[in-house]
């Protein structure tokens, strides 16, 4: 079966390359993946899968039935959305949508998901159970997985195990990075409003400068992390937006800070809202300002199932060779809403190397995942799905 997967992958590879480049040229933002979803649904229907569109708004689900000897259903997930970034490449297939590009490789993920469907559809008579393909919208806004779960994407039939990948420019092309257990960080949102008292820029002592207080809040939070938190339980707090002020000669009376909070340890994550509010309250009180704080629980950590992760490892060794397998020594502080699926069913995500001498990082305006990792990605996902029924 594994050799058949390899042969079929290379047979369909030219079509997948053309498909990936088409998707790269026509990116769509989170929740707006209409053309992408239509492309996915059309190809899945062509393969003879049962197709449901509009699952989780713009998501697509395709169900491939095997010979019925095993009642379990394996899931394969691929995300589809682009990012609000203007592409800065000279690629012949560069984005044709102003201000939008596939800067995180979801064009590659979608093509690999469709390639996996093509390969397994050609082998359907040999498949003991069913394969459910989940093409997810809005991963970049950490909403799409929840939309699909709430819309029943994991049910009817119930998914027993779920596999996914994410391209990774820190690994060479085609290398598969695996890690059981904690794989990504939990990502929460933070909004802090600081209320001061306006006044003339020449007489700051008669006012309460909200910009100055807000700057002290940011400094106190960063210093507090380094001195008050266990360094073996990492936390990353980043304030990405600061908005306030009306004119250069007017003391600002209202500042809004917006940021993200990343953590790996569940107990640390639970304690963070209270700790952050204490720092904000004490800092504002010291300078005569008021505040309002909103802490939003966002995406949890991806927790890779050990058995499914080891299964992926075995597939890579057999199909690609041990030289294409790399154990990831540490989790990422990035977030992935694949975690929402993993709260419902056992799952594992692996890294797919797309790196080279001139590679750019994810979310960079010159990033391109390229086509070299398509075949390794398809073979690994297809082999993992097939091998699951042997567990």
UniProtKB/TrEMBL annotation:
Domain of life: Bacteria
Domain Peptidase M20 dimerisation intervals: 189-284
Pfam family, one: M20_dimer
PANTHER family: METALLOPEPTIDASE, PUTATIVE (AFU_ORTHOLOGUE AFUA_6G09600)-RELATED (PTHR11014:SF63), PEPTIDASE M20 FAMILY MEMBER (PTHR11014)
Protein name per its UniProtKB record: Amidohydrolase
Record organism: Gloeobacter morelensis MG652769
């Amino acid at each position: 079966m594994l050799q058949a997967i390899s042969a079929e992958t290379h047979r369909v590879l030219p079509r997948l390359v053309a498909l990936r480049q088409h998707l790269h040229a026509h990116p769509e933002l989170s929740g707006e993946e209409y053309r992408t979803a239509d492309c996915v649904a059309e190809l899945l229907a062509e393969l003879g899968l049962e197709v449901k569109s509009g699952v989780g708004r713009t998501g697509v689900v395709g169900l491939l039935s095997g010979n019925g000897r095993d009642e379990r259903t394996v899931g394969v997930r691929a995300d589809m959305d682009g990012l609000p970034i203007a592409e800065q490449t000279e690629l012949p297939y560069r984005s044709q949508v102003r201000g939008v590009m596939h800067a995180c490789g979801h064009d590659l993920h979608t093509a690999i998901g469709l390639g996996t469907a093509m390969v397994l559809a050609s082998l359907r008579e040999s498949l003991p159970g069913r394969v459910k393909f989940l093409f997810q919208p809005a991963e970049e806004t950490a909403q799409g997985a929840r939309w699909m779960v709430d819309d029943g994407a994991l049910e009817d039939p119930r998914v027993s195990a779920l596999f996914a990948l994410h391209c990774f420019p820190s690994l060479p092309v085609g290398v598969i990075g695996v890690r059981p257990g904690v794989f990504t960080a939990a990502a929460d949102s933070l909004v802090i409003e600081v209320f001061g008292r306006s006044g003339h820029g020449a007489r700051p002592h008669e006012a309460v400068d909200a910009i100055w207080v807000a700057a002290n809040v940011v400094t106190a939070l960063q210093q507090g992390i380094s001195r008050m938190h266990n360094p073996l339980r990492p936390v990353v707090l980043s304030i990405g937006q600061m908005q306030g002020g009306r004119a250069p000669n007017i003391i600002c009376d209202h500042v809004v800070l917006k940021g993200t909070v990343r953590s790996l340890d569940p107990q640390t994550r639970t304690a963070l809202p209270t700790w952050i509010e204490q720092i904000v309250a004490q800092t504002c009180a010291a300078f005569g300002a008021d505040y309002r704080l909103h802490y939003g629980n966002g995406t949890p950590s991806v927790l890779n199932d050990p058995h499914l992760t080891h299964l992926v490892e075995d597939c890579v060794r057999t199909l690609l060779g041990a030289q294409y397998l790399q154990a990831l020594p540490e989790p990422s502080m990035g977030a992935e809403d694949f975690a929402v699926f993993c709260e419902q069913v056992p799952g594992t995500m692996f890294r797919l190397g797309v790196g080279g001498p001139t590679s750019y990082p994810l979310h960079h305006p010159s990033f391109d995942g390229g086509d070299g990792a398509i075949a390794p990605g398809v073979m690994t996902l297809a082999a993992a799905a097939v091998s699951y029924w042997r567990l």
